[in-house]
Structure formats: structure tokens, C-alpha cells
Write a structure and sequence with these properties.
Blueprint (H helix, E strand, L loop, with lengths): L1 E6 L5 E8 L3 E7 L2 E8 L2 E13 L3 E2 L3 H8 L11 E12 L2 E10 L2 E16 L5 E12 L18 E15 L2
């Protein structure tokens, strides 16, 4: 039996970290996103459909000028590529939960990635909604997705690192 789930956006966070000047990480997030998920019964290791999207224009790093730069053609080119998408292609058990395989599309470039997923549990909330919680982590190379802007300081230090860490806290609501 197929069970359908949707994301609870008010109880979920989609975040990333990237090195700045190679000495500190800057955290960013997307505040507008969607996720639909289908499983066999309640077995999340047997997902039959996983579709995620994030609105690039909703990027937030706590700095308006930096957010504008990230939305520009130097990085995400939000006016041309308004969505980041992830389509799950399968999963397998791992030590701490499972590995989620899928195709990530950023700036029109699609690449396969693997994310680590740890399920926190499934509960029925005070409103009689069944909810499931997950921590999702992974790493990608931003340059592989066409986010290739690269600057250096006068002394030759790299301004923005290539490796981007993904860290998401996701709460799903059972819809049927």
C-alpha cells in the first residue's frame, strides 16, 4: 500500500554551509521549498517517489548584499533558474539510517548525489496528524553545478570554497 507524505514547512529547515576565505563557514537556507514523498506503508527505506524543490529566490544568509550576489548570474542565476530540484532514485540501508540516491538539479545542471538520512521517529501529533522526522546531510561541489564564480583576495586567498555541506531537518506529514 502506498502512503503519501508532504513536508511540514513550518517544522523543517533546508540549510547549507560553505567556507568563506577558507577560515569560517557561512550558513544559508532556503525559506520556500516543497517535498512530496511516497512510501510503501510507513517504510521510508522503500520510497517510491521523492520530489523536492527549493525556490532559489528564497535564499537567505543573513546578509542582503550576499543574498543578492548569490541570486545573480555569478551563482544561481535565479531569474533564469528559479528552482533547485532533487528527484530520489533509490535508497539503501547504512550504519546510521540509510543512503538516499537521487538527481540534484541546480542552475540547469543535473548530477547524481547521495545523501545520508537518519530517521528521528514517527509520531501522532496533538492534531491527530502522523508525522515523521529526518536529518539529511550531504556534500556537493558547487562548481560541478555551474556555480563557478571564484574570487581571490590580494594575498591570493580563495573567497568562496567549492565544497557545500547540506544539512536539513525535515518533518513530513502523512496525507493518505
Amino acid at each position: 500500500m502506498i502512503t503519501k507524505w508532504k513536508i511540514d514547512p513550518s517544522h523543517s529547515e533546508i540549510q547549507f554551509k560553505v567556507k568563506h576565505l577558507m577560515i569560517a563557514s557561512i550558513t544559508g537556507s532556503f525559506t520556500s521549498f516543497d517535498l512530496s514523498f511516497e512510501t510503501e506503508d510507513h517504510d521510508f527505506t522503500k520510497a517510491t517517489k521523492i520530489d523536492f524543490s527549493a525556490d532559489v529566490d528564497s535564499i537567505s544568509t543573513g546578509n542582503t548584499q550576499r543574498d543578492g550576489h548569490l541570486k545573480s548570474g555569478d551563482f544561481f542565476s535565479a531569474s533564469e533558474f528559479s528552482q533547485i530540484t532533487f528527484k530520489g532514485t533509490g535508497s539503501e540501508e547504512s550504519e546510521n539510517g540509510y543512503l538516499l540516491n537521487g538527481d540534484l538539479t541546480i542552475r540547469g545542471v543535473t548530477k547524481p548525489i547521495t545523501l545520508d538520512v537518519e530517521q528521528s521517529g514517527t509520531v501522532v501529533d496533538p492534531y491527530n496528524q502522523t508525522k515523521a522526522g529526518f536529518s539529511v546531510t550531504g556534500k556537493i561541489s558547487r562548481k560541478e553545478f555551474g556555480l563557478s564564480w571564484s574570487g581571490t583576495t590580494e594575498s591570493g586567498s580563495i573567497i568562496v570554497g567549492d565544497e557545500v555541506s547540506i544539512a536539513c531537518e525535515v518533518q513530513l506529514i502523512k496525507v493518505e
